[in-house]
Design goal:
Elements: E1 15-22, H1 30-46, E2 51-53, H2 71-87, E3 94-103, E4 106-115, E5 119-124, E6 149-153, E7 156-160, E8 164-168, E9 175-180, H3 190-196, E10 201-206, H4 214-229, E11 232-237, E12 253-257, E13 260-264, E14 273-280, H5 281-290, H6 292-300, H7 304-307, E15 309-313, H8 338-363, E16 367-371, H9 376-392, E17 399-403, H10 411-424, E18 427-430, H11 434-443, H12 457-477, E19 480-484, H13 488-493, E20 507-508, H14 515-527, H15 533-543, H16 563-567, H17 570-583, H18 587-598, H19 620-637, H20 639-642, H21 672-681, H22 684-691
Parallel strand pairs: 1-2, 2-3, 8-15, 9-10, 10-11, 16-17, 16-19, 17-18, 19-20
Antiparallel strand pairs: 1-14, 3-4, 4-5, 6-7, 8-9, 11-12, 12-13
């Protein structure tokens, strides 16, 4: 496997490497500040950074009051800009740095954009704070209305105004706009206009002084701006070196991508600091494309894309395998951070409980009918049902649980099913489906009925169908409805028996919950003591059981049928599912992200409490193999099952597969486009091993 292949270049997948910079500075010492800027620029170059955002008034310092009106200082800043321009000719990063600049006998608080020995443009600050400790109107003119203008800087005439979007000709997603500090505190930040004009990255040069709680306020505004604009937001605030005559500075650097915090600096750091992370511009562009509200807002705002000047440049980026500096969650449906994990599990569980309560109230049902296998999905559906009964003040005997052993049922899962039903004190029953299954197999002339060890799909579906048939008849008999147990992962893969089978129920309570999240929800139920200790003990045993449909008798070695050996690890399938249905990403890009997430079990974060023994790693060949199988199943032959789904609540913001909700697709589509794209995007040696050599 050659890592020179474009597959390993993050730029080929739409990523742009950005950094916030807190350089070493000294109050009003332009030469010293210039050296600090260049030091961070060189570090960024070595790290393969594409865009570096510096603090407000980087070269002059911010907190220097009337020194800003001294000609000596202003002229030294202009001289320093020329020095920076010359020094960056051989550097790859685009620099966005702050400087006070003169134009038409006015002084502006500016952001200067420099790329590869050239000033691309200058953006003036729109909103000047003049309250409490701020007196910017004493020194600066505002930039509002400055459009279609030019400014002389460092011997060049360059675009000047608030109507600039900068775009790399050779990296389609590298499009950014600039606003300065107070701008994003305004009711309508100018960065929003830049976003609607096409900028996918918004830069904010700030000199925000720190007070108690100010850092949280900045996070709020950055996150809000990134979320509203469907953009990345790169924020860099002044740090140590500014004047502390009356204020203090923390050097906060923050990078958000929509609502997700990707990176933040170490505050109050005395040394020069870069905070580096990779932005997924393809993801942002795709999200805007599917979000019609964004398009409507741009139309309502007068189509800024038609009036803004697009400053196009050729970006000299670091090509090849420069890694991926970005948190990529192994379990995108499960938060990595403990504080979020608890909150998300609470919400997911209660979404399901509340939805089931509403369905019980609306139907006036006298009972809930659930097939209990002793596996993950039926276990989770049962504890949701138990909690719904508790909240409605109904006895848990309202739930009628039935375990229905078949030809492949193990004693372990059967025992767990009975133990769980006893622990939850529901109405429990057992129906042995083997006699009925044997009779049906005889009636249709199946070889198994005459003693042949034929365990084909028909053999399996006869059992799955009978179980569902029994449940529906029991629902009619007891005036209730069947609670479905199938989960989102199974629906994505078509891993269910269509129609009269586990595909069907009266209400699919787990239909919006992927397998990896179900596992964590059960762990959360145990950890938070939602039920008795006896119940928690059984739940722990269920979690420790290998996932199996148990439709085929154990082999000669006693091994049980393994779901994941047939359809792939659920942790990979859920990863694929999230990135494909939520962001519509190309399979080769999904493979790239999965490889970075899963290639090293010792790297990155794992969800809190994740069992050490289950911390797996996967190589690219394994990832590509199962991704190809996922694409074949998801796009090629599973949609007809999803098109006929019963009702069930959406749980994750990543999406659901209901034909009435997030995902709508034809049942007769083919998977060729996605499988071909994966094949073409992989390194040749990997493609040969996954698809075979000389595969067209």
């Amino acid at each position: 496997m050659t890592e020179a292949h474009p597959f390993f270049d993050m730029h080929a997948h739409g990523f742009v490497r950005v950094a916030t910079a807190t350089p070493c500075t000294r109050t009003a010492d332009v030469a010293y500040n210039t050296a600090g800027v260049l030091a961070e620029a060189r570090k960024a170059h070595e790290a393969g950074v594409d865009l570096v955002v510096f603090p407000e008034l980087t070269l002059s310092s911010y907190a220097i009051d009337d020194l800003l009106l001294q000609h000596a200082l202003i002229e030294r800043v202009e001289q320093s800009l020329a020095e920076v321009v010359a020094a960056t000719a051989e550097l790859t990063p685009v620099l966005v740095l702050g400087a006070p600049l003169r134009r038409a006998d006015k002084l502006y608080n500016c952001a200067v954009v420099i790329a590869h020995g050239q000033i691309l443009g200058v953006v003036p600050k729109s909103f000047l704070p003049n309250y409490r400790e701020f007196y910017e109107k004493r020194h600066f003119a505002h930039g509002r209305g400055c459009t279609d203008l030019w400014i002389g800087v460092a011997g060049e005439e360059v675009p000047f105004g608030t109507d600039l979007v900068f775009a790399a000709a050779n990296l389609p997603g590298f499009r950014f706009g600039v606003e300065i500090c107070e701008d994003f505190w305004a009711p309508v930040p100018p960065g929003m206009q830049a976003a609607m004009a096409g900028a996918l990255i918004l830069c904010n040069l700030s000199a925000s002084p720190v007070t108690i709680g100010r850092a949280d306020d900045r996070h709020l505004h950055c996150r809000s701006s990134a979320s509203r604009a469907i953009a990345a937001y790169v924020y860099s605030a002044s740090g140590h070196g500014e004047s502390t005559t009356d204020l203090s500075w923390d050097g906060q650097g923050v990078v958000y991508e929509m609502s997700a915090l990707l990176a933040q600096s170490e505050r109050f750091d005395r040394s020069g600091e870069l905070t580096i992370v990779d932005i997924d511009t393809e993801r942002l562009a795709a999200e805007r494309m599917r979000n019609q509200t964004f398009a409507d807002a741009a139309e309502w705002a007068g189509r800024p894309e038609d009036t803004y000047r697009r400053i196009v440049f050729e970006h000299a980026y670091a090509a090849g395998d420069i890694g991926l500096v970005r948190p990529v969650a192994r379990f995108p449906f499960v938060p990595d951070r403990p504080e979020r994990l608890d909150e998300d599990c609470y919400e997911a569980f209660n979404i399901q409980v509340d939805a089931l309560m509403r369905r019980m109230q609306s139907t006036g049902s006298k009972s809930l009918i659930i097939g209990i296998s002793g596996g993950l999905d039926s276990t989770h559906a049962l504890i949701v049902a138990a909690k719904a009964c508790d909240r409605l003040g109904l006895p848990r005997t309202t739930i009628r649980g039935y375990t229905m052993p078949g030809f492949g049922t193990s004693e372990g899962t059967r025992s767990n099913a009975h133990r769980l039903m006893r622990a939850l004190e529901i109405t429990a029953g057992e129906i042995d489906i083997r006699p009925a299954a044997q009779k049906m197999l005889e009636d249709i002339g199946h070889p198994f009925a005459s003693g042949e060890p034929v365990h084909d799909v028909t053999f399996e579906n006869v059992q799955a169908g009978l179980r569902t048939d029994y449940l529906f008849r029991l629902a009619g008999q007891h005036g209730g409805f069947v609670v479905g147990t199938g989960d989102l992962s199974e629906l994505a893969l078509g891993w269910c028996t269509y129609g009269v089978g586990d595909h069907m129920s009266h209400y699919g309570i787990n239909a919006g919950v992927p397998k990896t999240l179900i596992q964590y929800l059960i762990r959360w139920v145990i950890a938070t003591g939602q039920f008795t200790d006896a119940c928690g003990e059984v739940l722990g045993d269920v979690l420790a059981t290998e996932i199996s449909p148990e439709l085929v008798p154990p082999g000669a070695d006693g091994a049980m049928q393994s779901t994941e050996s047939l359809i792939g690890p659920y942790e990979l399938n859920d990863f694929f599912l999230h990135h494909i249905i939520r962001f519509g990403q190309r399979p080769s890009k999904v493979a790239f992200l999965a490889w970075h997430a899963w290639k090293d079990a010792g790297a990155g974060m794992w969800p809190a409490g994740f069992p050490e023994a289950r911390k797996n790693a996967y190589d690219l060949i394994t990832i590509a193999h199962w991704l190809d199988r996922f694409c074949a199943r998801f796009f090629g032959f599973s949609q007809f099952k999803r098109s006929a789904l019963p009702n069930g609540p959406k749980v994750s913001s990543a999406g659901a597969l209901s034909p009435r909700g997030d995902w709508r697709a034809p049942s007769d589509a083919v998977a060729t486009v996605w499988r071909d794209e994966l094949r073409a995007g992989l390194p040749q040696d990997v493609s040969d091993k996954v698809f075979g050599p000389n595969t067209p």
